[in-house]
Amino acid sequence: MKKNIFKILCVFGILLALFFITLPTLLNKTGLHPEYKYTKNYNFKNKKAVIITTSHNRLNKPESSNGKLTGVFASELTVPYYEFSDSGIKVDIASIKGGEVPIDPESFFYAIKTNADNRYLKDDLFQDKVKNSIIIDKLNMNNYDFVFISGGWGAAYDLGYSTVLGKKITEAYYSEKTIIGAVCHGVLGFIKAKDTLGNLIIKNTRMTGVTNKQIEELGINFTPQHPEKELIKAGVIFESKTAFRDVFANLTIIDEKNKFVTGQNQNASYETTQKMMEIIYKKE
User: Fold this and answer.
1) What pTM value is reported for the model?
2) How many separate domains does the chain show?
3) Which letter does DSSP use for residue 230 in this model?
4) Which residue, among 198, 202, 192, 274, has the nearest Cα to 225 in the 3D structure?
5) Are 73 and 38 in contact (CB under 8 A)?
6) Contact 267/186 with Cβ under 8 angstroms?
7) Host domain of residue 48
8) Quick check: is 18 in a domain?
9) What is the mean pLDDT of each run of 10 residues along the chain (284 residues)?
10) Whole-angstrom Cα distance, residue 190 to residue 117?
């Protein structure tokens, strides 16, 4: 009897170990963090990019300052950083308040970590940039060929409320050389950007961002701004894809003017960055 129980426990332990070993692959095959099959390492010289992130580090409910730690979703920072830098582009890291960028600790969970996340954890230079990010007030957008806004839950608390960020996106919009991209909640960084007549620059523009469905499925519907809702309110032509769970969906959109590249969620970080670089490459 004891031998049978021991055998059953051994089999169960082996099956459990196999599950944990194969879980990252299973999630990837289901649609989480897919590699962009058309990835290309460009040879860009003398080009610069800035990745802009949230400075908010708590997933708190309204009228409360308590909540679990959050911030930018790791891959929405690390993937564009390495896609840019591997193509010879100098990359700056900026945030709403400057200083240390909060990274959602849950986004480093072993089953959902990307190769870029693993590189970051061993990269002293990148980590130093994250700990000493540039405050957005000090950015000169004319210096950048690429502007990428990362998402994550923290972005729901500050990106869409920042008039400074709105002005910086407007500056980038009117810079002939600059391509602007964002994924997930990062698109909230566009909603205060206005043209010379005071109109929202994203009105009537095709864009995507994290869906209301994904937010509801994850049970985080108390955050102050939701990308799908806010983009539609701003007059955006909102598009998205769906899956049995939208965390596994993926879509990247380039607007008609080749100025904005937006990705639906964390799954689009590779493709969004690559398409931004492709636009510049085709111009040259």
Assistant:
1) 0.93
2) 1
3) H
4) 192
5) no
6) no
7) 41-283
8) no
9) 60 58 62 76 93 97 89 98 97 99 93 93 98 98 98 98 98 97 99 96 98 92 95 98 88 97 96 97 88
10) 26
